[in-house]
Fold these 4 entries.
Entry 1:
Amino acid sequence: MISKILEKALNTQFLEKSEIVELLYAENAEQIFFAADKVRKEYKGDAIHLRGLIEFSNICKRNCNYCGLRKDNKSIERYRLTKEEILDCTKSAVELGYKTLVLQSGEDSYFDIERLSEIISEIKKYDVAVTLSIGEKTFDEYKSLKLCGADRYLIRIETTDKNLYEACHPDMNFQNRIDCLKYLKNLGYETGSGCLVGLPNQTIESLADDILFFKSINADMIGIGPFIPCENTPFENLKAGDFYLALKVMAIARLLLPDINIPATTAMETLKKDGQILALQSGANVIMPNITDEKHKKLYKIYPNKGAYNEKDNPKKYRDCLSQKLLSIGRFVSDTKGFRKDI
Ligand code: SAM
Ligand code: SF4
């Protein structure tokens, strides 16, 4: 029956929850990956958008139970990049050909709107798209960041199961997370969301709800990450998420939102060698290489062994190797900013 469901998804870009559940339970998922790859090719072509990721602060006021950057984890060394360091990193990335930079951090109040605005305005002089991934802010704060040039914003819902959300985020409010996504969409950001696969007591049915949620908010980007246990967090002794289940969630998101941008996430590569390549062959069309300097990259420890294959090489060597690897699977690095409406 999988074939019938996939045919419906290809023709209508819509599935009932029960149908998504059936796909998620399916043992032979090859057909799902194949269908998602076909849709990716039809709507997005063979170009891969590379987004240079700058992890500019690992200081966080939140306490997400899965994340190594959580406030109560006293065992990691904390850092903040200076504005100059962020701009140096930007300059090198632009010289390497990056057209989008992603500024990511913990929720660090030091970087208030004034500081962030200055940094974004400087980066925008390089004619690159700027994506922010810095957590929850008010509508007015998101508005100010948009006005000074931010183009996109990533904020995963993590899970749409309210009880599970609360069990994972002791100091956060589920409705506020949803409101943030609404604010961002209303302000005209390209808005990215996503979920973690493998949270404790997460059900297949709740993952189906996550996918329907992405469709309902018309997300422009979806990042699916398998959960990876991290030492010195409340979830340190839990099992990691299932790579193939995460891949299925990602592939089904592609079927229902054919023209969006979907990254092959670093967590997929961390969990499985060549996991990002498998993701690129199952619906993904984006990679976010980490271009933070070596010293700080090591300290941004949301989970252990984070990092894509040979990402430890310098950013130029890594980019060259990645380009070659992409060519070997019939894909190539895009030279556009890669907005949803671009191809
Ligand atoms: N602080 C911002 C936020 O939470 O939106 C951005 C940075 S946060 C480190 C980025 C993403 O990392 C989160 O959305 C979460 O899904 C992911 N993450 C954190 N800990 C993880 C873990 N142990 N395994 C997999 N992904 C994790
Ligand atoms: Fe902070 Fe984001 Fe980690 Fe939560 S996921 S602890 S908000 S860095």
Note: Residues 60, 62, 64, 67, 69-70, 106-107, 135, 302 surround iron/sulfur cluster (ligand 2) (CB under 6 Å).
Entry 2:
Amino acid sequence: MADANPVKSMDSIMSLCKRRGFIYQASEIYGGINGFWDYGPLGAQLKKNLREAWWQDMIMNPCWGRKGPNGERVRCVPVETRIIQHPKVWEASGHVGGFNDPMVDCKACKARFRADHMWVAGFADLGKAEGVNERFPEFPLALYEEAKASGNPAKIMEAVKEMRTVHRLDAMLKEDFQKPRFFKTAVGGSLNEAAEQLNLSKREAKAFITPVVAWAGSLADFRSIVGEGAPCPNCGEANSLTEPRQFNLMFKTIVGALGTEDDKAYLRPETAQGIFVQFKNVVDTTRVKVPFGIGNTGTSFRNEVTPRNFTFRSREFDQAELEFFCHPSESQEWYKFWRDFRMEWWQSIGLKSENLILREHAKDELSHYSVGTSDVEYRFPFTAPGYGELEGIAHRGDYDLKQHQEHSRQKLEYFDTTRGEILPNGGKKGEKYLPHCIEPAAGLDRGVLALLCEAYTRDESRPSPEFLKLHPRIAPVKAAVFPLVDKDGMPEVAEKLYDELAAKYGKVGFIETDAKQSIGKRYARMDEAGCPFCFTVDGQTLTDQTVTVRDRDAGGQERIGIANVSAYLAEKLGV
Ligand code: GAP
């Protein structure tokens, strides 16, 4: 039986993205720049639609008007804060001191890797074992020796596979052979990714692959392991890897013309801090009352050691973050509320529930600021059967406001007039506190990538075997208007309808029109762009004022009055 949820080909998705103008490599004509991606016409509109959906459902009409755990409507306001902030913001937030990744360099080819993403495949050195064949006569030691002499990792692996089939190699390795021998290093965020690169089955991966840092127990032990000969994953040179060094992920820049170290500033690594530093201004200048949220969207920068998996880990990316401030006693309830809503939201714009999980972080995984964090994770083709983070929902406690209060020496406490003991006049005495904060932090580029991966569909029976099942709310092309043929008065009718729809719906996406090529080819082109509705003016239109509407996913058609097209589209797009 066919797999109902097959893993899609990332190469095909990337090639469609390029071919149809969704995503291009940044500076492509100069050979590209690692970790940076540009959006083409369709991608730019798709990403805008995603941001708008977030803005609408998180800020303008939060949670679709749903009531929060306090029994009242959820209230949120936006801010737009700058990429460059006072450098002390990043000292207070902990990013200057603690926003590091361990990095390993190859001394031979100068390639750089994340130490916590390096996996070494190896096994005990059978060559050192004595009397193997006496005790295990059928053991194919010669095969192994031959493979080892060839120095070819693929051959060694073949020999190991052969040995595994005739013997319980795991047990033998434990009993008879002590010294590990490493023959291949892979770089992958997960064991599965590493296994894929090494061409190993899951079972083999478990037996032969070890994460370099975790296995070493500490970074200090790293050398004793790589010293045994783990080769560089890029050039294959043994003994060429340096010990891991901590590497700060923030990009530095200089503000002003003098260019001294005193003029140093950072490009923000998250949009969240802009919210915390403006918290007091928002409270003082608007009528917001705790509990309430402040949303911020925009570009963040992280000098990722190993950008990878298309746009998934980029060095420049956009975030959409909400900081929801509440009384400490209500924070757990709000944490659960936001966690659940965010899962539901991603499904509402087209991600299938079977491809999403909500994963609660283990205690030792939590960021320095977090009391609790859950990730919404998506089953990307490059993480499948595992999942990759799409959004983090963190309970940050009062960490950030407290840090900024200390570093700026400004009082950031909130005076809550709805709390405190009841006074003789019946009013409340009030309570001063630092609100706790729940933070749903989404990545817009990862969101676009997840939506494209989900939408990508292959169906060999269609004129275009590849098409995008994008949700109408998110699709960059909302509708197309076609004359069936480029004559007989049809183009004029189509153009009039096109003008009407473009004027009304151009603000939410493209309305396309095209009279060239066969109608099948024009439909196929729209399918690839993810356009949900095609309206076609044909001979019948001229007599009864109806057009056909073609449903992208089912491929079926119905007829509706040309006068009803706009209302039909409004309903389908939810605008
Ligand atoms: N303020 C909290 C914060 O920034 P995060 O988990 O580091 O939390 C939030 O980032 C989201 O930003 C992630 O879930 C992811 O979607 C996106 N993101 C983080 N680093 C990224 C990168 N290098 N490339 C693309 N998106 C990234």
Note: Residues 468 and 529 are 6 Å apart (CA to CA).
Entry 3:
Amino acid sequence: MTGTERLLRDIATEVHYTRDLIGRDALDPRVMAAMAQVQRDAFVPADERVYAYANGPLPIGWGQTISQPFIVALMTDLLGCGPQARVLEVGTGSGYQTAVLSRVVAQVWSVEIIPDLAATAHRRLAELGYANVETRQGDGYLGWPEQAPFDGILVTAAASRVPPPLVEQLKPGGRLVLPVGEPHGRQELLVLDKDRDGKLRARSILPVAFVPLTRAAPRSPPSEDDDT
Ligand code: SAH
């Protein structure tokens, strides 16, 4: 069994165990195909590569993490976006979720607040040939107004409340998937639907643990990444 095959099996198992919460017993085959296609080892630091196909988060420097594959697959599935969709991601991080999204929708725009991570992910996605992806460094709380409105918006860092600019940049009929809650405490994954009249309906899916959505990039890397 290859690493990817094992990972797909582990994701399917976790989907099964959480089926009562997530309301399905299997994810969209298009999402699973994307998970099979994107090589996660290209998105993790060299010294973490042996764990690339384990179903867990991994450190990517600057105190940030590449999300757990099950969560990446679940959020992509929950977004419910088809091959024509234009999608915004907030929190590029390693670029892994960006790459998975890009296999499922037409075009992805992704914003990362930490300049080093933004630059690395940008280079990596270009080198790997993900052509329908645009990334930039900035505060994703503010969205990407020049490219709005979006069919779907996916946030991979937890805010204490839903950022109003993101709701604004969602098309009527669009969907926002995001973790909401305390920075290092209780958080829940929310699905927010904007109906044709612009009215919002929220559903809570399951408890999650994401890094916080910050409003300013840290000035220096945390000590664990300090080489000196
Ligand atoms: N999707 C990423 C997850 C990275 S963790 C992956 O698959 O690797 C969440 C990321 O959100 C971190 O890189 C963090 O720096 C970033 N982030 C936090 N607050 C942000 C903000 N306001 N705007 C954009 N990115 C932000």
Note: The helical segments are 3-17, 19-22, 29-37, 69-79, 96-102, 115-127, 164-168.
Entry 4:
Amino acid sequence: MMTPMIPPILNFATGNLGGAELVEKSTTLADLQGLFADPHAEAVLSPDTQLYRVAMLPGNGGEGDLNMGVTYLEAGRVGQEFFMTRGHIHARAEQAEYYFGLCGRGLLLLQDMAGVCLLEQVFPGSVHHIPGHVAHRLVNTGETLLSALAVWPAIAGHDYNAMGECGFAVRVLAGEDGMPHLVTSDQQGM
Ligand code: PAN
Ligand code: ZN
């Protein structure tokens, strides 16, 4: 009698991924040097501060295959600016992606090729379609870990330079009440 295999397990309540050998990548503040608006606030924090990690199921990376990974983005701020992922557009820019909110609260910042930004709330159960040609970044606006599941074509790749010097046109800062508010990246007084 054939015994059914136990596949990898995603705990949708906690975001924990297990039951498989995972490929993990961790990103620290030093890795994102200069990305946050306030260099003085950045200098106060340890460069080793871990901002996020991504745990991925190993894929074969071939044409037609899909990648799946969970991003765990810490809660915290650099000055007034909430912790966020570096953000990217896919190297094969036409390739789309899905994000699914697992735990915590945050925002998904989307920016199209014309520089037009759109924000979606991320929360447990939220579903986000990221079309091709749209740059994307997660922002943790809550007080707990934000985790989100992502599924994208293995051939998509990541282009971290395509956004150029200007990067995303919108930043997410905490107001005096701690609530997120948006400023355009060229706005002063951050
Ligand atoms: C995600 C991201 C992950 C980390 O898996 O790669 O959230 O963000 P950065 O890649 O911008 O550092 C995804 O969008 N994959 O395509
Ligand atoms: Zn992506």
Note: The longest strand covers residues 66-73.
